[in-house]
Task: structure prediction
Amino acid sequence: MTGQSFSLSAPGADEMSLLELADRLLNRGVVLTGEATLSVAGVDLIYLGLNVMLTAVENLRPRNAAAAPRDNVT
Amino acid sequence: MSSLVYMYAVLPRAVADGLVGISGQPVRWVSLDNLAAAVSDVPADEFGEEPLNERIGDMSWLGPRAVAHQEVNSELHERAEAIVPLAFGTVFRDDDRVRQLLRDQVRALSTRLEAVRGCAEWVVALHLLKSPEVDDEPSVVAARLEIESTTPGRAHLLRQRTAALERDAARRLQADASEAVLAGLRQSAVDVFVEPLPTDSVERPLLRASVLVRREAESRFLDDIDQLRTRWAEPIYRLLLTGPWPPYRFGGLTDRA
Result:
């Protein structure tokens, strides 16, 4: 009855789920732009295109707070 | 080779041993008082700020690591009452920095854990496949009647105006569909977050929303989705659903009541 819902916990996630996954996991950095083809594990995905920026992964940082979880790594 | 500490999620306590994380590394716990962070070691030459930013746009690199990240959080989500899953790429220099975060953010993290306790997240998108029928819209009906009963010269002008009315009516119907779907989602949700839409996309949906749903209300939520799918049906609309996700969006939202 909910044929279009699927769980993404399983390995071998399909093409759509990888796009969804990237969207969830990079939630502030993923923008969909024009056409693009990306290759994932040898399978060509044709979809709207991922233009990923990692400008703000510090998902935890409250506004105006100094401490970032990604503190880091220089 | 030097390593960094990659953080998957924060929970009230350690719930699982033996999980495997990115690049096959064991998931371990860094705990402080009533918080526990699930972490694993990752190589600095991939996860340092500069190499990470270089690689993150490469789906062949990101894909397996994003899947590993999600698999850890999915397992934890199944086993724990409350979890704040982090975005991909949350990296610390060492365990002390992780503890420092837990100490500095104890209030915010505890509040967020409570907000998502017992819940999962779903993503709903409403797509428009073709323009909705406007033949029955009052403004369009009236304009067409006027065309029939007027002179040929004036009818030409009216036809142009009618085309604009038809476009307006279609837009109105689409907005009504979005509103109705949003209202339907709210019926059995704890919270609904309307996602910003991509600005530059041919398949831009009418609506995209993250929905926080109590695990025990899931079957009711899925029934609501079925009803919405029946009401806003193909060939005009398509309602897409994914989930249940760990609460990536709602666990990360700041300052929401």
In short: The CA atoms of residues 8 and 20 of chain A lie 9 Å apart. Strands of chain A lie at 30-32, 36-40, 43-47, 50-52. The longest helix of chain A spans residues 15-25.
